[in-house]
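Hi all, posting the design record for the shared folder.

TITLE: backbone redesign
STEP: 1 of 1
STRUCTURE INPUT:
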């Protein structure tokens, strides 16, 4: 009797599992049928549409519609549907009192447009006369400086480090001057002649962090800049994502420690007599992407004896467009030149 009950229980379980399996298979078959039917219906609709287009094109005297034209027609049709749906959504939002943020914030957007270029004028202690001359000649100060930023998209700042004896008279004089002019970028590093390459690197890095500009320029504090010519030249290079512009040269490498321009790493440069091609240090410009590259890799990019050589070395292994622009040769002033040594 016990064996008979156990056998009947097993049979019942097998039947129950069989029914569940059959039910699942049936449901799967139904869903598959719906899917296939839907795809066939979509394909049929597409075929009808293509046949109509083929008839229309043929009727216009063309022999057939190409595959490219077919794809374009289908893409345009889908875009038209999406555009119609968006227009309906916008109309509904307008009825509910929503307005376009773009139209209401036009003036604010213009005020916050991206700067064309950020100019860093690298200066030193005891060079106030040079800075005043630059303010008077091309950079301006106060309202004039703000006007250049707003109307021309050109931001200019004097770049300087701190004294080795923090808080001494040198630091205080710069702080006092900055309170009056508000046109300094003061770096948290020692101001010294041998630190100029690191100073240039930090300018590019911090400027890229502070301003999202199209270009960044390094200028010496004894250089006159033609702002209008600079703006026109840089505008012509806006279509180049990674560009390095300047008066390109290959200066001599000096291996004698007693020489003014001694290069400690002289043995690394090819024939040990000349540097690779790089922009002259009086003034050069890099695009925003390169400034961001410097900002991200500031701790990895090494410097050499000169800031212009150092900058050139950072771009050697990158996909960068080098532009040898004669207008940036500051030592030879000519018509249409961008800079001139003073």
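Okay, here is what came back for every position:
SEQUENCE:
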């Amino acid at each position: 009797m016990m064996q008979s009950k156990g056998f009947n229980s097993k049979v019942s379980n097998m039947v129950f599992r069989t029914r569940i399996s059959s039910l699942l298979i049936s449901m799967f078959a139904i869903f598959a049928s719906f899917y296939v039917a839907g795809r066939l219906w979509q394909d049929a609709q597409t075929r009808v549409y293509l046949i109509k287009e083929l008839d229309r094109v043929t009727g216009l005297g063309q022999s057939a519609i190409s595959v490219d034209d077919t794809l374009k027609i289908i893409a345009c049709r889908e875009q038209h549907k999406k555009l119609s749906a968006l227009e309906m959504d916008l109309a509904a939002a307008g009825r509910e009192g929503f307005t376009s943020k773009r139209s209401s914030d036009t003036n604010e957007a213009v005020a916050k447009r991206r700067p064309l270029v950020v100019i860093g004028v690298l200066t030193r202690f005891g060079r106030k006369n040079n800075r005043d001359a630059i303010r008077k000649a091309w950079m301006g100060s106060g309202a004039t400086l703000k006007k250049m930023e707003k109307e021309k998209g050109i931001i200019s700042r004097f770049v300087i480090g701190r004294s080795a004896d923090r808080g001494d008279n040198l630091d205080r004089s710069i702080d006092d001057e900055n309170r009056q002019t508000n046109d300094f970028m003061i770096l948290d590093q020692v101001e010294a002649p041998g630190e100029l390459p690191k100073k240039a690197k930090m300018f590019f890095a911090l400027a890229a962090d502070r301003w999202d500009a199209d270009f960044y320029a390094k200028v010496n504090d004894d250089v006159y800049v033609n702002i209008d010519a600079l703006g026109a030249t840089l505008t012509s290079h806006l279509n180049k994502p990674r560009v390095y512009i300047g008066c390109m040269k290959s200066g001599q490498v000096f291996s004698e420690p007693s020489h003014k321009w001694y290069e400690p790493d002289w043995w690394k440069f090819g024939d040990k007599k000349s540097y690779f091609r790089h922009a002259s240090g009086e003034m050069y410009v890099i695009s925003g992407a390169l400034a961001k590259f410097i900002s991200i890799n500031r701790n990895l990019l090494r410097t050499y004896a000169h800031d212009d050589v150092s900058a050139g070395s950072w771009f050697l292994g990158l996909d960068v467009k080098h532009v040898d622009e004669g207008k940036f040769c500051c030592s030879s002033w000519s018509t249409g030149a961008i800079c001139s040594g003073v």
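COMMENT: The longest strand covers residues 278-287.
Let me know if anyone wants the other runs.
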